[in-house]
Predict the structure.
Amino acid sequence: MKLELEKYTEQLKLWPQEGYHIMAQYDDDKIIVYQSYRREIGEFAVKNQYFGGAFSLERMTWIKPNFLWMMYRNGWGRKEGQEHVLAIHLKISAFKSYLENAVYSTYSDKLEISREDWQNQVKESSVRLQWDPDHDPFGNKLERRAVQIGLRNEFIRSFSREDILLIENISDFVKDQYQFVLNDDLDNLLTPLERPLLFDDENLNKKLRLDYN
């Protein structure tokens, strides 16, 4: 497994407690995002290093760069159809392109456009952006917001093949770490090393509402 790991309790001391943050493991070339699938999709992806077979290119797929938010969504890999947990090493240039083309999935006055204009953008865009409450290992809601990104059409096609550097099956790691959560032993819980991501592009940071603290 090529994920860089760190004790959760050590990371917690450094993580922002509130605000909008893309918490992720990344470097200049890549960013790691997470998805969960049923066995046949997960095994195909790991074996072939792209998404195909039973994976649908016709439905929107959602990627999540925040490990613990993914664990909240898939119940630490225990929810039916989400047993195969994948760490997908993506080209960070592709990830940035998704966000540049993203439209918020729900309307708000913060968008500074009319609802009609937003609706037109939604119809034309193939990328959705959504901020949700982040969660701790037990599934408790936090003040910090976590991002997820929905892809369809040309973006799901590029995501499924050429944007990917590596696909890892981390299901066993997830199961092992969940035991520490069950035993209320967070001192021994390991999670992927994550830190807030900011872009050099100030307009993109503003669009994403990213906080700097």
User: Anything to note?
Assistant: Residues 103 and 121 are 7 Å apart (CA to CA). DSSP finds eight helices and twelve strands in the chain. The chain has a mean pLDDT of 94.
